[in-house]
Amino acid sequence: MAINKNVEKILNKQINEEFWSAYFYLSMSNYCNANGMPGFANWMKVQFQEETSHAMKMLDYINERSGRVILEPIAEVPAEWNGILEIFEETLKHEELVTSLINDCVNVAIEEKDHATVNFLQWFVDEQVEEEATVNEILDQLKMIEGKGQGLYMMDKEFKARVFVDATQA
What we know:
170 residues; mainly alpha; 5 helices
């Protein structure tokens, strides 16, 4: 059975949001690199990879359901911040926004009685809980060290080790 048109429309919108998120994190990665924080740059680059995989998971789902994917232009992303603390404050705000957008997708799927899509979207709901918790933890640590000094150096060193694991394939 083909995907419901209202569900297809909101998932297409979300695909664009996921690609924008990827660019957002890639921009943050570039900022971190330019400001001598290669570990944080790596952390954000992994976020870029995750967001891209989220978009592709949705894109593949629409195609599997005999729908049509329509890609939109990606809006400009910020390129400057006032330090790493602001970056993670913006990251948390962004992840909270993404959570609300995923919830909107679920709500449309429920309204349209599209149980397959509700089930599909549950992975994204769970992912957003994890994303917000992770960013909150990092933000708490950054606030503890006031975003500077040896603590920042240690966090940057730790974040160099983060690697992308495509959880969407699980």
